[in-house]
Here is the input.
Amino acid sequence: MNGKINRLNSIIKSSQKSLEKSAKLLDKAERAPIITQHSALSTQHSALSTQHSALSTQHSALSTQHSALSTQHSALSTLLNKPHTQHNLLTPVKEPQRPPSVELRSTSQRIIKKYLTTSPSNIFAPLAVKLHNYKEV
Here is the structure.
């Protein structure tokens, strides 16, 4: 009976070793695609890092150029505003002219109507009729 037990133990140990070897092979097989993917991603990361560095350098150059152009724009704006400022200083400020008030217009119209309607000459008669029919503002 000891022989059978020893034999069974030997078979069990052998099976366990086979299972362990299979597990190791399976583990390697599962890790192989991950390693390949990791390598590809690492290469892609390196390329993107290089591209980022180039874009960063380009950004720095454009920023410097923008700063120089802003300074130039400011200087040109100052030069362009000088004649306008000088013109404003040399030109006297005129007060806006007011249109005649409504009262003055209606008074003048009344006087004209009165003159035209009382005028001895008939030359103004058609004009007098028009003015007489005119509604006052």
In short: The longest helix spans residues 2-90. The CA atoms of residues 29 and 118 lie 124 Å apart. Residues 101-137 form one domain.
